[in-house]
Amino acid sequence: MSLSLSRDMEETHRDILTMCALTEELVGAAVDGLGGAAHDLASELKAADKRVDWYDVQVEERCLRVLALHAPVAEDLRRVVSVLRIAKELERVADLGVHIAERADHAAAAVRAAREAGESNPVGLGDLPALKRVRQAARVALDMLRRSIDAYVDLDPAKARKVCVDDDIVDGLNRETLNEVTDLMRENPAAVEAAVGLFSVSRHIERIADHATNIAKDAIYLVEGQIVRHSKRFPDRRAGETAEERFGPVDVDVPHPKPDLVGVS
Amino acid sequence: MSDSTPPRPLAAEWPALLPWLAPVAVGIAGLTSSSAGLRLTAGAALLIGAAIAAWMQIAGRARRDRELADLANDLRRGTAPPLPLLDPSEPEPDLRAAVRAVFERKNQLDAALFELTEDRDRLFAALEGMSEGVLAVDRDERLLLVNRAAAALLRLPRGDLKGRPVWEVVRRSAVTDACETVLSGEGRYDAEFEVEHATLALRADPLPGVAALKGAAGVVLQIRDVTELRRLESVRRDFVSNVSHELKTPIAAISALAETLLDGPLEGPPIARRFLADIEGHADRLHDLVVDVIRLARVESGRDVFDVRRLPVGPVVEDVLRGLRAAATKAEVRLSAVPPPQPAYVRADADALATVLDNLLTNALRHTPPGGRVTVDWNSDAGSEVGEDGPTVKLRVIDTGEGIPAEHLGRVFQRFHRVDPARSREKGGTGLGLAIVKQMLAVFDGSVAVESVVGEGATFTVTLPSA
Predict the structure, then answer these.
(1) How far is CA A197 from CA A120, A153, A205, A264, B304, in A?
(2) DSSP 8-state symbol, A236
(3) Which residues, 6+ apart, have CB-to-CB distance to B409 below 8 Å?
(4) From CA B55, how far away is CA B365, in angstroms rounded?
(5) 10 Å Cβ neighbour count for A126?
(6) What gap in Å lies between CA B134 and CA B157, rounded to an integer?
(7) Strand order in the sheet with B373-380
(8) What ipTM did this prediction achieve?
(9) Which residue, A18, A130, B349, B457, is most buried by CB atoms nearer than 10 A?
(10) In Å, how far is A151's CA from the nearest CA of chain B?
């Protein structure tokens, strides 16, 4: 590897990891903002998203330069290709983080508007019992994102495969959230707006987990040179493992402020 | 001696030359004699002598070369051959001196190195033991040092992290930004960031070094967990705002009442009396609140202010009940105590235990409607099965009042938490009574728990170590 190639590759590596840190923090902040008091979270996070976008462009330009100037082969080529793909995935994850924050802001604004309109007890995101499950899904998804990047850094396909397996957990949580939210909407029409918002957050989180899986698959490609996307064979898949088996129970001991909403699911 | 030897001081040369002088003198004498036979013999002897001398010289050189090579090897490997290294008959004493000097120097260096290693180990041990996380990063943003606290706080992977880029290992934007800013020469950098619901404060300083002229030679990052600090700050803020709110309400009432009185003309003494009675009531509330705040402060200053001793429970309960008899009669609530067959003793402060009981009973009376019952009972589990903390005494205050809704059960011991704020204030509660109970019991290694069924009453159970 020539010196300038290795320097370019190291810079790209650095940019990817900085992007990953920013993205992780962005999504974490967005999820923490769910159900909280309204402050302009989305516009705050958009600044971070801009930084992520800048890194995305930076990585792409550098990768193109490497391709044009050095015509890399074998592992170098695989690295360029996977870095390009990972940057794209991270950029999408950051966008989803902003979407989640927008949802949180939107729901909080709706509650405020309803209260001003004279409604005594409007239902916000924080009043939905399903929020706890969505938060758990977010925790799992963020953990997957972190581990997928770990797998890329450590060039560890085994780690990457574990991430792919965990995608099922988030999918399962998303399905449960859908069921719970649908039941809730049937029983309590006043909660429809908040419930729809929460479900879309849950879907965003499920997408984030998918992106994490894709990053993990890119890491596998980087090491082994085989494209595992769309192939369903993971030797260490543990069928039917639920989120609780892996990450412990959802904390259920916190008494809910609105008990009439709890019994719905 | 041959010319190839390096020049040496004369003093060292003389003794080496002496053995040679006699044969040379004899040889010269023979060569210059008149007898041809003698000249021939002297000539041959001189030639043979020269040959022997040349051979000895060559052999000596070879031996010396070997010894020097060995010496060089020893020096290179750092193994010390026993001194004197060279033959004691070594004809070159300054070489011996040089070798000795080299080895003395080596021993000094060894000692210095040992000391430095020890120093370094001590420093590392201190760094490892620190509760603050410390990271050092060189100019290329590679990790020089990570202590255990830093690894734990930042959730770093295990293994050897030295030499790896900080942005690859740590991956927190605050840390990467800090390194970048400080390395670009902008001086100290402070930030606060969250890692899995812990708030971490970060301070980055440039590593002092020769390269300080242009940017920094590296960065030292200190990381502190300030989660607890931030939580306490918010608790304190809440407490201050709560206390000031509680103080403001009666003061506002008193000043409004007084103003009305002053504005007279008063509509006759009965109304003035009522106003004054109201003022007195509010003043009492203020008094209660201030007393409770002082009590809370006293409890929080720890165990020292209490006189912890072996204490019979019965007399304390009787005392407290006597004090509350009037209030109970007024509230039309039956107040009674059920002593155990065997007197029970606890380890506590008499006044504090009385305060605990008083607060619990006042609370029970306040929330029990007329015709209800408030009962105190206690018993020791000494002699029966003993919990892991040794024998305890359980003291229960049972009322038949309105009960506490389930979602409030966990919070009734929080300061200023009220199930029904308006009614509690109206009845003279300060919102601190149960908080004081909990804090005081914690000082005596005791605890308090509550269970309740709405509409049927509540039971507060105090557990104290038996004595």
Answers:
(1) 21, 35, 13, 18, 55
(2) T
(3) A255, B450, B451, B452
(4) 122
(5) 17
(6) 16
(7) B334-338, B373-380, B392-399, B457-465, B447-453
(8) 0.70
(9) A130
(10) 12
Rounded-to-integer distance, Cα B362 and Cα B376, Å: 12
Q: Are B407 and A24 inside 8 Å of each other by CB?
A: no
Q: How many interchain CB pairs under 8 A, A with B?
A: 35
Instruction: State the Cα–Cα distance between residues B168 and B178, nearest whole angstrom.
Output: 15
Contact with chain B for residue A241, Cβ under 8 A:
no
A57: CB partners within 8 A, 6+ apart: none
Among left, alpha and beta (phi > 0; psi -120 to 50; other), residue B23 is alpha
Indicate the length of chain B as a whole number: 467
Helices A41-70 and A74-116, packing angle to 10 deg: 170
Contacts of B171 in chain A (CB under 8 A): 17, 20-21, 24, 146, 149
Between strands B309-312 and B345-348, the pairing is antiparallel
Pull the structure tokens for residue B177: 């930004």
Contact: A257, B193; criterion CB under 8 Å: no
CB A13 within 8 A of CB B168: yes
| C-beta neighbour count of B324 within 10 angstroms | 20
DSSP letter for each residue of B380-421: E-TTS---TT--EEEEEEEE-SS---HHHHTTTTSTT--SSH
| Terminal CA-CA length for chain B | 102
Structural domains in chain A, sorted by start: 3-232+253-262 (1.20.58.220)
Residue A16, min C-alpha distance to chain B (Å): 9
Per the structure block, which two tokens stand in for A258? 């609105």
| A136 touches A177 (CB < 8 A) | no
Amino acid letter for position B30: G
Tokens of B403: 């009960």
Closest to B295 (Cα-Cα) out of B228, B358, B363: B358
Tell me the helices (H) and strands (E) count for chain B, helix number first.
13, 12
Angle at A238 between CA A235 and CA A242, to 5 degrees: 155
d(CA A87, CA A93): 10
Contact between B194 and A28 using a beta-carbon 8 Å cutoff = yes
Contact partners, residue A148, CB within 8 Å, separation at least 6 = A160, A163, A212, A213, A215, A216, A219
Q: Hey, of B140, B155, B167, which one would you mutate to test binding to chain A, going by the most A CBs within 10 A of its CB?
A: B167
> What is the helix (H) or strand (E) element at residue B363, kind and residue range?
helix B350-366
Residue A52 touches partner B, C-beta closer than 8 Å: no
Overall residue count recorded for chain A in this entry:
265
Residue with tokens 């509550």: B450
Report the phi/psi class of residue B223: left, alpha or beta, with left for phi > 0 and alpha for psi in -120 to 50.
beta
pLDDT, one tens digit for every residue, chain B (467 residues): 444 455 555 455 566 666 777 777 777 777 787 788 888 888 888 888 889 989 998 998 888 788 778 877 877 776 655 554 555 555 566 777 777 787 788 889 989 999 999 998 998 888 888 889 998 888 888 888 888 888 888 888 878 888 888 888 888 888 888 888 888 878 888 988 888 778 899 999 888 765 545 556 788 899 999 989 988 888 888 888 888 888 888 899 899 888 888 887 566 777 788 888 888 888 988 888 888 888 888 887 766 678 888 888 888 888 888 888 888 888 888 888 888 888 888 888 888 888 889 889 988 888 888 888 899 988 887 555 555 667 888 889 998 888 888 778 878 888 888 777 767 666 767 788 888 888 888 888 888 988 888 888 889 999 888 87
Is-contact A51 A26, C-beta < 8 A?
A: no
